[in-house]
Each structure stands twice: as C-alpha cells, then as structure tokens.
Prior knowledge:
Number of helices: 12
Strand order of the largest sheet: 4-5-8-9-10-11-12
Mean pLDDT: 86
Shape: globular
Amino acid sequence: MRWNHLTEDTGTEDRPGTGPAALFGADSVVTRTFDTPEFRGITFHEVRARSIVNRVPGASRMPFEWTVNPYRGCSHACVYCFARKTHGYLDLDTGIGFDSQIVVKTNAPELLRRELGSRRWTGAHIAMGTNVDCYQRAEGRYRLMPGIIEALGEHANPFSVLTKGTLILRDLPLLRAAAEVTEVGISVSVGFTDTALWRTVEPGTPSPAARLNVVRTLADAGIECGVLMAPVIPFLGDSPEQLRDTVRAVAEAGATSVTPLVLHLRPGAREWFTAWLGTHHPRLVPRYERLYAGGSYAPTWYQRRITRHVHELAAEYGIGPSRRGGSRRIPTPERPAEPAHAGPTQLTLL
C-alpha cells in the first residue's frame, strides 16, 4: 500500500477534497487544511482505516504486543522522532512532511469497538502513543481519543498512554472511569527541562513545565503517572546538572517513576537529526559520528552511565526507577490468540 495510489485533491475546511482510497479501503479520503493559527501549514488526510489494532513485531523489546494509533505523522515536530521513517512507507516526506502531513483515522473509535468485540480478541494490553502522539494538536479538533478510551473501558481492556501532550487532561474523567474497571497506565515523556533545548528539538510540543503539570494533575486526581525521561540527548542534555534538574522536577511533580532512554537514531530520523545538528551545533557532528558509529544506538557504556546516574538521582529524590513497563502497569505479556485480523506491523519504540 503506497500513498501515491491516492489522487491528491487538497481542499479547505469548507470544501474538502476527495480521492480514491486505495490505501485505506473503499471509502473516500478527504484532505483538509484549516486556516487557524494552531493548524496553519498543516494538511490533514482523513481516512477510513481498515484496521486499528496493530501487532508489534515479535522481536520487539516492548512489554506489550498490540497498539492503537489514530494518527500517522505528528505536529510535535521532534527532530529526533524515530517514527519519521513510517511516513516514507506512504511516499510522504519524512522531514517537514512528517511534521505537516497528518493522516487521521477518523473511524478509529468505531473500528476499535468492533475489533474489541470480536470473539477472537482475548483482551490483551493495548499501548497508545508509542509511535506518534495520540494527543498531538490534531486531537483537539478530531477528538478521537474519548471514543477510544470509552471503547476500551466498555470492554474492560487494559491500556496505557504515552504522551507529550497536555490535552490528555481533557479526558481525565474518562481515564478515571476506565481505571475503575481495568488497568490504566499513563506515562508522560520529559527528557529534559532545558527550555532553550526544548524550543529547538521539540518545537511543536507543550513545554517541559506544562508536561510536568500534567503529571502533577494526574497524581492529584489519583492516577499514577510515570515519566519516560526521553530522550537524553548526548552533549546537549546529558550534563550532571541537567540530569539533576530534570529528575528533581520529575520528583516534585509527583511521578511514580522515572525511566531514562538515551537518544537513538534510526534511519529516517538519523538523517533529519543530523541535518538539524549540522545547522544548530556543527561542532558536535564529529562527536555524534563517533558515538553512533556502531549503528542506531549509543554505546552500551554510555547508556549504562546515564541510566546509573538517573537511578541514583531518583533514589536521592525519593522516586524509584521503573521496572520494565512498570510506569504503565503492564502485566507480563502473553501471546493472545490471533485476533480477527493480523493488522499492520508497527515499528517499535526501542
């Protein structure tokens, strides 16, 4: 399935364009732009998805094997985002295109209800936000997550959400209701508190302070929330002072755990990040070439050094490092019976 199977017809909010939906099924694909400040420069491709519950590859390190992704592409525009390569599968640009060409699966809630109701679905944990953020700006207009959370709650299906978005607080009543009948885990991603670094590497996201306020608000509402300290960016966000500032802020926000994750640079993201680095920090390019000479991941010794330091700081400030999947309260995964569909395979976070 390729994006160039579609006939592009850009419309406006009042006059949507349409084209054949070879990519996502027999229904029409609608392309919209909205002339409002928060969506200026962004194009939305509304599609009717054929499936919404996706299987994570068996070789993944993740402690879950099913995900739901109502969006593809992300206006957070994080320069390091590992999911950029997925836009290439649709013949879309993995740079600016990933940030500004957003695919919206408008039938996600109804499709999820149908798939959860299949007699072959066994109620396995479903993770959200592990590919692109389900609470990015588009969610403010399309409001897909309320229906998704309601469907999961109706079926008492355990789930987790990882987000950089503050919009999750809109759905706090739904999250509390779901938590009464099933396991619900929330993690917020805050890799650093340096505002200058945030403005350049995560330009479309809420500030780190705003995200930490999400943690605080969830904690005050009785919903446990862990922090994925990701990414720790070598030579820009990994000094002892920066790590201490971040862990202290995480602890003060009331997080139940903090889990560091060092920047990894997969193909697609690597090229985009390297171009950004060459523009903003050209002196660091040779150091990155040496550090990542072995592939997508920083050397084991570097990852262990960061992890050990963060764990020591967490203990000092009274929060423990998360066990694998602990902040999301994910049970040890078991291979469920084959659901009604195999679903597309998703790239993993790690």
